[in-house]
Amino acid sequence: MSYGATSKSSSRPRRLKLLRPYLLVLPAAVFLGLFVYWPVVLVTFLSFFEWNMVSPQMTFVGLENFASRFADPAFYRLLFQSLLYIAIALLGNFLLPVGLAMLTLQLGGRCGDVYQSLIFTPTVVAVSVGALLWQYIYLPTGGLLNAFLGLFGVPGNNWLNDPATALGSIGVITAWKFMGFNYLIALAGLMAIPKEYLEAARVDGAAGWSFVRWVLIPLLMPTVLFVMLTAILQALPNAFVPIEILTRGGPNDASNNLLYATYQSAFQFFQIGKAGAEAVMLMLLLGGAAVWQFRILDRSLTYDR
Amino acid sequence: MTARSYPDRLAAHAVLILAVAVTFVPLVWMFGMSLKPPQLVFTDPLNPLPLAPTLENYANVFRTANVARQFVNSVVFAGGVTLGQLAIAVPAAYFFSRHDSRAANLLFAAFLLTLPVPFVVFYVPNYILMSRLDLLNTYPGMILPQIASAYGIFLLRQHFKSFPQSIIEAARIDGAAEWTIIWRVVLPANRAAIAALAIFVFINTWNEFVWPLLIARDPEMHILTVGVAQFASGEGGIQWSTIMAAAALATLPTLLAYLFIRRQILNVILEGAVKG
Questions:
Q1: Quick one: average pLDDT of A216-238?
Q2: Coil, strand, or helix at residue A156?
Q3: CA nearest to B208 within chain A
Q4: Which residues form a coiled coil (chain B) (predicted)?
Q5: Is residue B147 situated within a structural domain?
Q6: Of A17, A22, A34, A35, which to mutate for an interface test with B (greatest number of B Cβ within 10 Å)?
Q7: CATH number of the domain that residue B183 is part of
């Protein structure tokens, strides 16, 4: 019995000692808990209610907010347009930066450094400022784009107010603003490929297509995947400020998407429950994509270690 | 992977120069138009260079908006968020770089999972929280929720991992507590990475738009990026030369910072991404 007693009396300090290093994480945990985890819980909770953010009355409606979303044709349009934004991001913020990074790497040395610095520049410009600069470029009269097209006799357009071009025009702005960052990430990954691997494969006689297929592609894969998934995950958040400043999702919802519509439900129409349901669906979509991303990276980032 | 043939290099240069040109068009036009006389701003749109350069637009910006106040707001906002993020990220990143237990890894995964959660999710609850705490239109209201980011933890952990454990053991044998080790040993040794992270967070926060607009409707509390947008939504029509001057003023600080410490900024991203 006495043995048990001593072990009991010594286990508390020991457990405290074990826990003490976790104090280092406490500040971060408090902030993330208060401003990230708690909001996620609260938003999920609110998605089962009808509420306008100010009224003391909240009505429990169960899954009604979700059901009404799926019954609404406008919801599927938002979903489709969200996919369009993602498609544009795949072109402008994935294929383009990865391609440019490969070209930069081929040049190498000082030239590469200069291109790196220049192409990254829009990253330090505020996205709100960038949106305004492009608003000027898109102006129907006096704007740069129409003036430029006029040189070739191409008729101009009211880019941001035409339902056919509004979404694409916003997409171009996000490509411009965020391409440089993904370009740098791509460059980083490509530069990290150990040169010895390439040399060794060459020595072993791998050449032509078999070199590309069995050596180059597997080595490039982790980087390419990472940039691709970043582009997908960031497509809607990146378009948010340009939409808010330039089109507010219009004309006629032509440039709207799930993320911006969620914001509108909350801060424009004060339908907190509807916004909550939309936010939960967004989280599931993006969170799922992110988990998938970490999984793939975990599996493919082994050559680095 | 270095291309050696001459035509290949030439083609690569051509594509990259085109990319750089498109990248810079909006910025060149911004500075050019900001110097054009207001009545000439739409004449000859294809030529960004002002024929009769004037500082009139800048004077106009300073006359209509309290740019000095907005500048101070931007500095306080970005500075506060940067300091806060470093304060929570450095100890946590140090912890995760030294502990490989199941619990620690689970906690780290939980932190990482917050990275892709779209910001719209936080806005409603954080807005409600800040308004209940009576922090609307205040610096703490703008700053506190923005500190909660796992990005710094993720990035610094990679740098701290390569720091030799033997030095930390030596400090521990000398009787140093964990916080002392962080403050006296880990921080100084990693100051380049921490400074670069600070610069990066500062620039990103400086460029924030939606949260500072939501939480601080009072024009006295507007930051520069919000102030610029007010010019564009102003009543009585949009004056483009003034907008361009305001945009240039909001962009100059980060652009100058980038010009001088470009290498450090690029390197922190390059290294973080590689090791991640």
A1: 83
A2: coil
A3: A126
A4: none
A5: yes
A6: A35
A7: 1.10.3720.10
> Does B60 map to a domain?
no
Q: Which residues of chain B are within 8 Å of residue A117 when distances are taken between CB atoms?
A: 262, 266
Residues B75, B99 within the same domain? yes
**Block residue for tokens 């030095």:** B167
Here the tokens at position A26 are 């406490």
Q: Is residue B182 part of a domain?
A: yes
CA distances, A112 to each of A9, B10, B126, B155, B258 (Å): 64, 13, 43, 24, 18
Question: Are residues A133 and B27, on separate chains, in Cβ contact within 8 Å?
Answer: yes
What is the rounded distance in angstroms from the CA atom of residue B144 to the CA atom of residue B99? 28
Alpha-carbon span B58 to B65, nearest angstrom: 11
Mean pLDDT in residue range B105-131? 86
CA dist., res. A290 & res. A112, Å (int): 31
Residues of A with CB below 8 A from B119's CB? 237, 240
Contact B118 A40 (CB under 8 A): no
**B30 inside 8 A of chain A by CB:** yes
pLDDT digits (tens, 9 = 90+) for A58-93: 888 888 889 888 888 999 999 999 999 999 999 999
Best A34, A41, A55, A129 residue to mutate vs chain B (most B CBs within 10 Å): A129
Domains, chain A, ranges and CATH? 72-304 (1.10.3720.10)
Average pLDDT over residues A178-200: 81
Contacts of A138 (CB under 8 A, 6+ apart): A145, A159, A160, A169
DSSP B213-226: HHH--SGGG--HHH
Q: Which of A254, A274, A250, A252 is nearest to A263 (CA)?
A: A274
Question: Which structural domain range is residue B38 located in?
Answer: 1-54
Distance CA B155, CA A270 (A): 37
pLDDT confidence of residue A214: 74
Per-window interface: B 136-175 vs A, CB < 8 A: 144-145, 147-148, 150, 153
Residues B148 and B189 in one domain: yes
CA distance B199 to chain A (A): 11
A116 Cβ neighbours under 8 A, 6+ residues apart: A104, A184, A187, B266
* Averaged pLDDT for residues A288-298: 74
* Residues B218 and B249 reside in one and the same domain: yes
Q: What is the longest distance spanned by two Cα atoms in chain B?
A: 74
Same domain, B164 and B90: yes
φ and ψ at residue B196, rounded to 5 degrees: -65, -40
On whether the CB atoms of residues B157 and A25 are closer than 8 A, the answer is: no
Q: What are phi and psi of A60, to 5 degrees?
A: -75, 125
- What does the block give as tokens for B86? 């470093």
Structure tokens at B212: 């500072």
* Among A34, A126, A237, beta carbon nearest to B207: A126
Residue B134 lies in a domain: yes
Choose from B23, B124, B151, B275 for mutation: most chain A CBs within 10 A.
B124
Axis-axis angle for helices B151-161, B262-275 (nearest 10) = 80
